[in-house]
Design the sequence.
């Protein structure tokens, strides 16, 4: 038999805003934080509980016993009022997570709202200044080992740097090391990378050309990022992580904020809502596919494919520093399309073939299952239907012409 308080809670759930999780938007939440007055899903409830009862007191709507005062608190607040309070000053560059986003992104969103109260106190948003420096673990280009590197982000220079730590740095470990790292993370903006602290940069990453995938599963570390950018006409990947989820989250938001500032300068008449759509995005899809060459006699080879906006890249291994090849996915009006074949192609593992047609060439690919092929067709078709932006056209020119100049092209330029 349903008791009176449980019935009241079910009625409150029907109110607008309460029928989805206050933190990730999942439908039909069945938990609540009764001191905060919000309805949340099971996943977010576990994060609330990990913050401690001094911040959030969690109960199940049906399995736990509710007191009258707790139900009254839920009635007084609710998801909409709580959002107005705890999300009052979320920066436009901040990535608000959804139910399908990585755990670390959702966890840091919740901790930022209720534990650190960053969006009630803007002075606590240390990732907005345009400059940040600190230490991240970076995967080597030629091997799989991760080494500690100092990164410097500088919006004014449009660069990101990384270099080896100095000789007397890096000897502290554990909590002391993490504290030092955090103290170094007060500012951000340009990134370059160096071999020695006092030498010229080994390379320069331009923020305006940089995409960042947050916590891709293939890295094997939840507090990670994949930095992807154009170098000498080709794409380069850099893989980094940090042991502290708060630190990696700050780096990610710092990059997004810096890129938004640069976009606002480059396109002053463009609405901010449109510019936000150009901020770093996770890859539309990644996974293994089979690929064959243009001749019917060419053998099928298993490749790791990544769709980054309109770049369909393929690699020997998921964590390669460079793709073996890159296919630009343009708009259907320019001759780009997908053709599906329902007949086998001689390779028993590649039983579900399809073709990506471009003005220059038709690429023959295949998936190992019908479901896998359907998922790839959906994301590629979405890219083909989407209108090209000026930045897309610049990237297309870079890839199609196979430029070998050492000067990469800015996605913000009008060229």
Sequence:
């Amino acid at each position: 038999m349903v008791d009176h308080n449980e019935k009241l809670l079910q009625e409150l759930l029907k109110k607008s805003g309460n029928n989805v999780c206050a933190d990730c938007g999942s439908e039909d939440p069945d938990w609540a934080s009764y001191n905060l007055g919000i309805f949340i899903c099971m996943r977010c409830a576990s994060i609330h509980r990990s913050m401690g009862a001094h911040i959030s007191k969690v109960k199940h709507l049906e399995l736990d016993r509710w007191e009258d005062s707790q139900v009254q608190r839920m009635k007084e607040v609710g998801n909409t009022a709580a959002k107005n309070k705890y999300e009052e000053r979320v920066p436009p560059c901040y990535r608000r997570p959804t139910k399908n986003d990585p755990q670390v992104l959702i966890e840091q969103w919740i901790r930022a709202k209720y534990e650190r109260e960053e969006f009630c106190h803007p002075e606590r948003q240390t990732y907005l200044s345009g400059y940040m420096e600190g230490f991240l673990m970076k995967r080597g280009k030629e091997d799989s080992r991760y080494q500690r590197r100092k990164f410097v982000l500088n919006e004014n220079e449009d660069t990101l740097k990384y270099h080896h730590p100095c000789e007397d740095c890096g000897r502290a470990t554990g909590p002391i090391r993490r504290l030092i790292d955090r103290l170094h993370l007060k500012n951000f903006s340009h990134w370059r990378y160096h071999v020695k602290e006092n030498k010229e940069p080994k390379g320069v990453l331009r923020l305006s050309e940089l995409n960042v995938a947050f916590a891709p599963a293939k890295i094997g570390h939840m507090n990670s990022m994949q930095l992807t950018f154009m170098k000498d006409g080709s794409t380069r990947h850099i893989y980094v992580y940090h042991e502290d989820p708060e630190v990696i989250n700050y780096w990610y938001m710092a990059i997004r904020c810096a890129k938004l500032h640069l976009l606002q300068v480059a396109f002053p008449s463009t609405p901010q809502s449109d510019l936000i759509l150009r901020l770093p995005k996770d890859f539309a899809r990644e996974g293994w596919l089979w690929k064959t060459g243009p001749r019917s006699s060419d053998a099928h080879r298993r490749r790791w494919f990544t769709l980054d906006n309109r770049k369909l890249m393929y690699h020997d291994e998921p964590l390669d520093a460079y793709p073996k090849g890159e296919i630009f996915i343009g708009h259907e009006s320019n001759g780009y399309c997908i053709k599906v074949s329902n007949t086998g192609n001689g390779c028993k593992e590649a039983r579900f073939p399809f073709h990506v047609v471009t003005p220059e060439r038709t690429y023959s690919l295949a998936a190992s299952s019908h479901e896998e092929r359907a998922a790839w067709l959906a994301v590629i078709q979405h890219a083909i239907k989407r209108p090209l932006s000026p930045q897309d056209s610049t990237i297309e020119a870079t890839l199609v012409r196979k430029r070998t100049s050492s000067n990469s092209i800015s996605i913000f330029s009008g060229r």
User: Anything to note?
Assistant: DSSP finds ten helices and 18 strands in the chain. The two ends are 70 Å apart (CA to CA). The first helix runs from residue 4 to 13.
